[in-house]
């Protein structure tokens, strides 16, 4: 009995150690940073305007990310451009999450005009179903996203409705495979 | 046999003339009818395409209501465009439509990143921009450091700034040389290419490689600077500054250069911001936006330098801003060489470094503008997604905006002023 008890104690202690390591990793994953006043002012403006339609992902120093829905995307971008003055499109990224059956389209928008926001980058993400990833184009707000959206279209198969010229950009014209940046497109030999 | 040879000759001549006259008449009539036919078809079928040649449809003459519009392919083999194709529509010599077509050197860098770990990703990420290999790699290292929470030694931060500024000059000299030759100024091709060698020697002294250094790693730089680096760098930079002064005399005040660039291809500040252009193109339109100043990384907040802007927004301004920035680079490198502390240059990482799940968006100011990386990690040693947003790709919308309405002869001047690098845009 005593030996068993000793074993169980050992196991317990081991499991405790494992737990503590996990806890450490978790702590590193989510360091609780209080939102700084500058970021908080931007977040407040958006939450008062859009309420529950948008969800805050994070508000780290100089980096803010929101999740929004396809219906609001043009209104949201218009509000961001006209009211908060984030006016410079930086990039459009598509990310494939086959486990969640989702394709995420992330717009990164910078600011050139308001001095206190110039160091910040605002990101908003659309989580689209992987079977029919459709969204609306933002060319009417940020004309520079035209080529970024074309790239996302060919690389991940996201369709931007209302885009004037949604054609292949970087891939060859006779490309006859699935969009290459989806996770189920494998590289030969890897 | 009564006819003499002279008569025979004259008869033959008469006959020949008659035949010739008939033939000429016939040809003239045929021409007239074909012309009438062509005119009538032109008149009737306004706005329709006519197959005049065996060329593909893109390259055929198209008749529209405004007149005859010719579609020309510039590139991808044209020496003036690099590996890049511009479908240009001209009416006379005025450009009326531009369709940029990148992708001839697409290598799938972003897909490759998903199959390699953080360290293995370093050498191939430099390939899109070998003329400025530190600038394109810098934000990747910064993003890795943020995700995995790696501290960088102070000395390594200074070395990174020095090397990225040297690389910036190397790129800008290369660009200036090609800009010179495409505006017909052969001396401006020879001089920067020669002076670039001296800076490449300097980079080789520190890193061991001439152009693709693979020098920056997450956690610092690969190796320390050699002892004699400071003296040689200062000597080299003094000479380089002296040469820059000469560039102004031979190129930037040259009346031919001024004629071809002043007032050509004007981009307003609002357009520049909305199109998302960066770097010298943005600053030439009067927007004072430099990542080194607005969001300082590493030690840029401890250095004293100036951000140059010009208000005209024309091709001359876009060509002149990089020139002024080379002076600032010299200034920054000299300050760093004075301030650099002694210590380690690299934080040792484990064999297969990894961070927790998370994401990071980092940007730096390279020779052509803002290079941004969006790195998403899922906690495994390989990045889940790496998005590169290179400055050249962001310059593409400005290209079609500026070329519309310009003369065909201005195309090289406008195109090269955008600091466009096809390999970097295609990735």
What does this structure look like?
The complex is a heterodimer of chains A (190) and B (427). With 190 residues, chain A is α/β, with parallel strands linked by helices. Chain A has helices at residues 2-29, 37-50, 73-82, 146-156, and strands at 55-60, 63-68, 88-97, 102-110, 121-129, 134-136, 159-161. In chain A, strand 6 (134-136), helix 4 (146-156) and strand 7 form a beta-alpha-beta unit. Chain A starts with a helix and ends in a 29-residue tail after the last strand. Chain B has helices spanning 5-44, 109-113, 121-125, 133-148, 154-182, 186-207, 229-252, 255-261, 269-275, 280-284, 291-294, 315-339, 391-403, 411-417, 422-426, and strands at 61-64, 67-74, 85-91, 94-101, 216-217, 220-221, 358-365, 370-377, 385-389. Chain B starts with a helix and ends with a helix. With 427 residues, chain B is an alpha+beta fold. In chain B, the strands form 3 sheets. Chain B has a 4-stranded antiparallel sheet, with helices on one face. In chain B, strands 7-8-9 form a 3-stranded antiparallel sheet. Among the domains of chain B are: 57-101, no CATH class; 131-140 and 149-350 and 409-416, Cytochrome-c3 Hydrogenase, chain B (Orthogonal Bundle). At the A-B interface, helix 1, strand 3 and helix 4 of A face helix 2, helix 9, strand 7, strand 8 and strand 9 of B.
């Amino acid at each position: 009995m005593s030996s068993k008890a000793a074993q169980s104690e050992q196991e317990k202690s081991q499991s405790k150690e494992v737990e503590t390591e996990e806890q450490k990793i978790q702590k590193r994953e989510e360091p609780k940073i209080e939102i700084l006043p500058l970021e908080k002012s931007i977040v407040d403006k958006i939450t008062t305007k859009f309420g529950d339609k948008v969800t805050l992902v994070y508000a780290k120093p100089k980096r803010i990310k929101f999740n929004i829905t396809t219906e609001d995307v043009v209104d949201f971008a218009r509000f961001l451009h006209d009211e908060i003055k984030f006016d410079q499109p930086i990039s459009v990224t598509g990310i494939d999450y086959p486990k969640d059956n989702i394709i995420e389209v992330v717009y990164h928008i910078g600011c050139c005009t308001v001095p206190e926001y110039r160091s910040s980058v605002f990101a908003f993400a659309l989580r689209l179903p992987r079977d029919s990833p459709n969204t609306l184009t933002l060319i009417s707000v940020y004309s520079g996203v035209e080529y970024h959206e074309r790239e996302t279209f060919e690389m991940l198969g996201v369709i931007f409705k209302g885009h004037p010229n949604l054609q292949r950009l970087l891939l060859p014209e006779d490309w006859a495979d699935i969009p290459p940046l989806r996770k189920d497109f494998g590289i030969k030999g890897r | 046999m009564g006819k003499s040879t002279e008569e025979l000759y004259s008869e033959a001549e008469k006959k020949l003339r008659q035949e010739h006259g008939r033939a000429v008449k016939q040809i003239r009539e045929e021409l007239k009818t074909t012309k009438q036919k062509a005119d009538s078809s032109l008149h009737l079928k306004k706005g329709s395409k006519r197959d005049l040649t065996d060329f593909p449809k893109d390259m055929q003459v198209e008749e529209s209501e405004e007149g005859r519009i010719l579609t020309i392919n510039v590139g991808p083999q044209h020496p003036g465009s690099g590996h890049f194709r511009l479908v240009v529509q001209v009416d006379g010599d005025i450009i009326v439509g531009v369709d940029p077509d990148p992708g001839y050197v697409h290598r799938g860098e972003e897909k490759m990143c998903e199959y390699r770990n953080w360290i293995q990703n370093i050498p191939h990420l430099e390939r899109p921009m070998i003329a400025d290999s530190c600038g394109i790699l810098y934000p990747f290292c910064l993003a890795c450091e943020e995700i995995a929470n790696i501290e960088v030694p102070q000395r390594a931060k200074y070395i990174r700034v020095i090397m990225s500024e040297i690389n910036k000059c190397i790129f800008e000299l290369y660009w200036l040389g090609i800009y010179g030759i495409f505006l017909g100024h052969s001396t401006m091709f020879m001089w920067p290419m020669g002076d670039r060698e001296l800076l490449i020697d300097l980079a080789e002294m520190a890193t061991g490689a001439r152009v693709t250094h693979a020098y920056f790693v997450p956690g610092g730089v690969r190796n320390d600077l050699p002892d004699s680096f400071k003296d040689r760098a200062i000597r080299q930079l003094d000479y380089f500054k002296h040469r820059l002064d000469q560039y102004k005399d031979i190129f930037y005040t040259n009346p031919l250069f001024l004629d071809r660039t002043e007032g050509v291809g004007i981009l307003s500040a609002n357009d520049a911001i909305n199109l998302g252009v960066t770097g010298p193109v943005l600053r030439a339109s009067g927007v004072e936006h430099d990542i080194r100043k607005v969001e300082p990384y590493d030690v840029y907040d401890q250095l004293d330098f100036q951000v140059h802007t010009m208000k005209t927004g024309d091709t001359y301004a876009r060509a002149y801003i990089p020139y002024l920035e080379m002076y600032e680079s010299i200034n920054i490198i000299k300050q760093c060489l004075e301030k650099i502390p002694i210590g380690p240059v690299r934080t040792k990482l484990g064999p297969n470094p990894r961070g927790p799940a998370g994401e990071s968006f980092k940007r730096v100011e390279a020779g052509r503008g803002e290079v941004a990386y969006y790195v998403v990690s899922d906690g495994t040693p390989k990045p889940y997604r790496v998005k590169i947003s290179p400055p050249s790709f962001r310059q593409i919308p400005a290209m079609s905006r500026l070329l519309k309405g310009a003369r065909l002869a201005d195309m090289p001047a406008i195109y090269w002023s955008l600091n466009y690098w096809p390999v970097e845009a295609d990735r």
